[in-house]
Design brief:
single chain, alpha/beta, Rossmann fold, seven-stranded mixed beta sheet, two-stranded antiparallel sheet
Length: 284
């Protein structure tokens, strides 16, 4: 659930909006002055009913995943009033990310709600390859993904979706260095920060999770709600270097990073091929 502290922030913001002066022009024949009506009481009666939902959100955790892939969207999803965010893993033991940050599951694969409003899968490096080879994880992703209202991922998490057979014929994005693998996953590769095709929403590399999460908040609530969440997070990035994409990074830097993915690409290619063979013919 959304934390009490963050829920209080949103409620305070809503009360402030409700209490803002209502400006009215004087009637005909009077001087053109503007008067302010008394502020509305500071309670929650003005909150739109649409601002509170009942979403069930399942966010997959697996060893070696990239923490920011998970934490960025989780911060946004946790701001959805009334929603329940499940951190899903094979066991309830802490899951250690690729940078040794431990994250706590709240439910196992087995006990995660079967019908989710959002299924989310983060990416990573070697840990993602292991997830793509893990029959239990792929079965969970395929099962929940078939019924979820929104199937989402960030970075190479899209390759886990692909290995589970959930991207066949869908437009999708992933980390810039692994776009070639999307075709092998049955997807239509699109170079964009966030890509939505029907109920599939995929984000590019790592930091794009913030954009994906915020976009989904806006979809499930409304722009004003999402803008409140964005402002609370002070999400207004001004990176100290303009090297966040291959288009802007120095060529030598882009080459060096691309070289880091060569082994990943080979292993992911093999994992996708293996997953395709293992899936029932009806889901290929």
């Amino acid at each position: 659930m959304m934390t009490t502290e963050r829920r209080s922030f949103l409620r305070a913001a809503t009360a402030a909006l409700a209490a803002s002066p209502r400006l009215t022009h004087a009637g005909q024949g009077q001087s053109a002055q503007v008067s302010a009506q008394p502020p509305a009481p500071h309670d929650m009666s003005a909150m739109p009913a649409s601002w509170t939902g009942k979403e069930q959100i399942g966010m997959l955790l697996y060893p070696g995943m990239t923490a920011l892939d998970f934490v960025g969207p989780q911060h946004m999803f946790a701001a959805l009033m009334g929603a329940k965010v499940h951190h899903v893993a094979k066991t309830l033991d802490p899951v250690v990310s690729d940078t040794q940050l431990a994250l706590s599951p709240t439910v196992t694969l087995e006990h995660c709600p079967r019908d989710l409003d959002i299924l989310f899968v983060p990416g990573g490096g070697a840990g993602t390859i292991d997830a793509m080879r893990d029959a239990q994880i792929l079965a969970f992703v395929a099962d929940r993904g078939r019924r979820a209202k929104l199937v989402t991922s960030v970075c190479t998490g899209s390759l886990v979706l692909g290995a589970a057979g959930l991207l066949q014929g869908y437009k999708a994005t992933t980390h810039w260095a692994t776009h070639a693998l999307l075709k092998e996953a049955g997807a239509i590769s699109v170079q964009a920060r966030v890509v939505r095709d029907r109920n599939r929403i995929t984000g590019a590399g790592v930091s794009a999770g913030l954009d994906l999460g915020l976009a989904i908040v806006g979809m499930l609530r409304d722009p004003a709600y999402a803008q409140t969440v964005q402002l609370l997070a002070e999400y207004a990035p001004e990176p100290p270097f303009d090297a966040g994409t291959p288009r802007t990074a120095p060529p030598a830097v882009t080459t060096m990073v691309a070289d880091m993915f060569k082994d990943f690409e080979l292993q992911a290619h093999a994992a996708l091929a293996r997953a395709k063979v293992s899936r029932p013919a009806s889901s290929r």
